[in-house]
Automatic annotation (TrEMBL):
It holds the Pfam family Pkinase. GO terms for biological process: regulation of RNA splicing. Residues 40-380 form the Protein kinase domain. The keyword ATP-binding applies. GO terms for cellular component: nucleus. This is Kinase-like domain-containing protein. SUPFAM superfamilies: Protein kinase-like (PK-like). PROSITE patterns: PROTEIN_KINASE_DOM. GO terms for molecular function: ATP binding; protein serine/threonine kinase activity. Keywords: ATP-binding, Kinase, Nucleotide-binding, Serine/threonine-protein kinase, Transferase.
């Protein structure tokens, strides 16, 4: 067992050392080789996920750059993401497949008593958040294009009985244009040291690597146009609907708040939230803490059409003893003038965009349109 108090505070914005404890990762270094015949050479770090580290690598067999996603040991067996990617490999032709990851290879590596799954896919660029960070005015044509591609990806998943479950700006990445060169040779490392100067435990790396896309700026040229929806760690199948998923709090669909059975409709709700964010440059809902605080916030944004379903669900939850505390503690006074259409930039956003958002943001999941139906909306046609 690693005693983290024995180690220096990390100054580098990389993964925490606790990730290397039992059930986590084993050390990986720049220049390491993995795969059959040492096919993949680690060049840099591409990102950090909740259950994975993502590395940029060179595929020496195909002479291309790839993404190497290393899953934590305790998440590697019967891995959900691998199952989804393999299912998509067998999926019939669909326009949305080009906006979903393609699995090139996968294998397991065992070191330091940990067996981790390696997923090899296309190396992608920055996510939506990093690309648009600090830009409040976004060209409508770009917002429309991203929404259309995201909708195609969602429709492809749903057509194959798959629900993504965690759509947010960090899981939507741009495909690298041919004209852009990633700074793969610029590696930022943070040394790992014990406070007493003693040697490191075997499980710990000598250094951690800062993701290469951290704090970068990207030229908003027309080449950044194709997106890919990634990360299937919260995915579920339509045939096996849960009542809970891990999701970004401000993207939480109403049915999850009330712990109702979840369906493909959760992706449509988050699509509406993301489209609003693409179009306006601001989040639809912002809150911290108890997800029940979203109930009045949703009513404020969606309006009277949400009242019946929200009230019925609220009374059912109280009657069934879903919550033990008093509702008044987390149900603040409603504020006026906060509907979708009251956004300061409303006049700069087309009616078709708001009509599309409205269609997605139906609080009753049984009445939310399917992804295929939304493809007929003028905003994305």
């Amino acid at each position: 067992m690693i005693n983290l108090d024995d180690y220096n505070d990390q100054s580098a914005p990389a993964e925490w050392l606790e990730y290397y404890q039992e059930g986590g990762y084993f050390p990986i270094y720049i220049g390491d080789f993995f795969g059959e015949n040492e096919r993949y050479e680690i060049l840099n770090k591409a990102g950090i996920g909740g259950f994975s580290l993502v590395w940029a690598a060179r595929d020496h067999e195909e002479n291309r750059y790839v993404s190497v996603k290393v899953i934590k040991a305790d998440q590697s067996e019967n891995n959900k993401e691998l199952a989804v990617l393999q299912r998509l490999q067998q999926a019939p032709s669909h326009e949305g497949l080009q906006h979903l990851p393609q699995l090139f290879d996968h294998f397991y590596v065992e070191r330091c008593g940990k067996k981790c799954l390696f997923l090899i896919t296309e190396l992608l660029g920055p996510n939506i958040h990093d690309m648009f960070y600090g830009i409040s005015i976004r060209p409508e044509i770009r917002s429309r294009s991203v929404t259309k591609q995201l909708l195609l990806a969602i429709d492809c998943l749903h057509s194959n009985g798959i629900v993504h479950g965690d759509i947010h700006e960090g899981n939507i990445l741009f495909r690298l244009p041919a004209s852009y060169n990633l700074p793969l040779d610029i590696v930022y490392k943070g040394e790992v040291l014990r406070n007493d100067g003693a040697p490191l435990e075997e499980e710990l790396p000598d250094y951690v690597v800062v993701p290469m896309m951290e704090d970068q700026t990207y030229p908003l040229g027309h080449d950044w146009k194709d997106i890919v929806l990634i990360d299937f760690s919260s995915t579920f199948y339509v045939s096996d609907s849960p009542t809970h998923i891990d999701a970004v709090p401000n993207m939480t669909p109403p049915e999850r708040i009330f712990r109702k059975s979840l369906s493909s409709a959760v992706d449509i709700w988050t699509l509406g939230c993301m489209t609003y964010q693409f179009a306006t440059g601001s989040r639809l809902l912002s809150f911290f803490g108890d997800s029940r605080r979203l109930i009045p916030a949703i009513y404020e944004k969606v309006g009277e059409s949400a009242a019946d379903w929200l009230l019925t669900s609220l009374l059912e939850a109280i009657h069934e003893g879903l919550w033990k505390d008093e509702c008044t503690k987390w149900f603040p006074k409603l504020r006026q003038g906060r509907l979708l259409e009251d956004h300061p930039r409303r006049t700069q956003i087309s009616d078709h965009a708001f009509q599309f958002i409205r269609k997605c943001l139906v609080v009753d999941p049984t009445k939310r349109p399917a992804a295929g139906e939304l493809q007929n909306e003028k905003w994305v046609v």
